């Protein structure tokens, strides 16, 4: 007998081998968290998502996210990947929304035109300005602004070239009391409003290629700076990706595309 199936999906991109890869494991029901952590460690991606249908609630799925080191409260790219798998593999009719029950409350995903998927996420705006000194020391560049959100530290630097050229001290970044450090500046290339790179060494991820949940903080920040609610974020990591953002009060609608890259299954004896 074979074990649970795992699908790897590149999220926030329309082509394979770009964006942010996530593993999605579809399960018949709840399983032990230690097993999920072991699988995430084995996959060794920034996130592995675990989906299970909610009994008696059609179209609703329990969703949990694990890095190789810890379970996290919110993850955008693995949610996008999970919705993509639900529709592509026939777990959910293509015209129905996907509803997820998560550690950050209910989340929804809907299919749009051109392969775009819209995620309805909670906004996590900057809550207070903080001393930029530790971030400047860790990043090795001048910092214009530093502010703390629910999960992450947002750091504004001078320009996109500075964001692209960063080579941070990961040990210093990991010592900053936040899930991650989001470094951002106005976009200079066409097609985007702001650029970012996102670092999460404290949860075992040096740099995340494209980070949906970070845009729950980046979106409100740049909506305030630019004076409009609809924006396009360019995450300028080596893999790169595009996130559409629409700020709607205390919610953020994140838009992205996704591409399946491979499918597999756990061997007999490796299941939960």
Global Rg: 18 Å
Low-confidence stretches: none
The overall pLDDT, averaged over residues, is 95
Number of strands: 18
Please work out how many helical segments DSSP would assign.
Answer: 6
From the N-terminal CA to the C-terminal CA, the straight-line distance is: 13 Å
Question: What composes the largest sheet?
Answer: 18 strands, mixed
How much of the sequence lies in strands comes to 35-45%
Task: List descriptors.
18-stranded mixed sheet, alpha+beta, 272 residues, 18 strands, single chain
Task: Summarize the SSE layout with pairings.
Elements (H helix, E strand, L loop, with lengths): L4 E7 L8 E7 L6 H11 L3 E7 L6 E7 L4 E2 L3 H13 L9 E5 L2 E7 L5 E6 L5 E2 L3 H7 L5 E4 L4 E4 L3 H5 L5 H6 L5 E6 L7 E7 L4 E4 L6 H12 L3 E6 L5 E8 L2 E6 L1 E8 L7
Parallel strand pairs: 2-3, 4-6, 11-12, 13-15
Antiparallel strand pairs: 1-2, 1-18, 3-4, 4-5, 6-7, 7-8, 8-17, 9-10, 10-11, 12-13, 13-14, 15-16, 16-17
Give a written overview of the molecule.
The mean pLDDT is 95. With 272 residues, the chain is an alpha+beta fold. 46% of the residues are buried. Strand 13 and strand 14 form a beta hairpin. It has an 18-stranded mixed sheet that branches. The chain is built from six helices and 18 strands. Helix content is 20%, strand content 38%.
Q: What's a quick, concise take on this entry?
A:
This protein has 272 residues and is an alpha+beta fold. It is built from six helices and 18 strands. The protein has an 18-stranded mixed sheet that branches.
């Amino acid at each position: 007998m074979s074990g649970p199936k795992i699908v790897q999906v590149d999220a926030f991109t329309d082509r394979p081998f770009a964006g942010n890869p996530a593993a999605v494991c579809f399960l018949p029901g709840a399983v032990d968290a230690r097993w999920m952590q072991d699988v995430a460690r084995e996959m060794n991606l920034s996130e592995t998502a675990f989906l299970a249908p909610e009994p008696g609630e059609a179209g609703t799925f329990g969703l949990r996210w694990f890095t190789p080191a810890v379970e996290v409260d919110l993850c955008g790219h693995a949610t996008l990947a999970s919705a993509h798998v639900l529709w592509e593999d026939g777990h959910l009719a293509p015209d129905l929304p996907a509803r997820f029950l998560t550690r950050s409350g209910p989340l929804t995903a809907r299919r749009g035109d051109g392969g775009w998927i819209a995620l309805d996420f909670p906004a996590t705006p900057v809550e207070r300005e903080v001393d930029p000194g530790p971030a400047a020391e860790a990043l090795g560049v001048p910092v214009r602004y530093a502010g703390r959100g629910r999960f992450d530290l947002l750091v504004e630097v001078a320009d996109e070239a500075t964001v692209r050229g960063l080579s941070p001290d990961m040990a210093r970044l990991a010592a900053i009391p936040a899930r991650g450090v989001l470094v951002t500046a106005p976009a200079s290339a066409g097609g985007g409003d702001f650029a970012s790179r996102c670092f999460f060494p404290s949860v075992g991820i040096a740099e995340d290629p494209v980070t949906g949940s970070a845009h729950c903080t980046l979106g409100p920040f740049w909506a305030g700076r630019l004076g409009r609610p609809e924006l396009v974020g360019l995450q300028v990591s080596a893999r790169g990706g595009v996130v559409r953002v629409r700020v709607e009060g205390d919610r953020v609608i994140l838009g992205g595309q996704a591409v399946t890259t491979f499918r597999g299954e756990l061997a007999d004896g490796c299941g939960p």
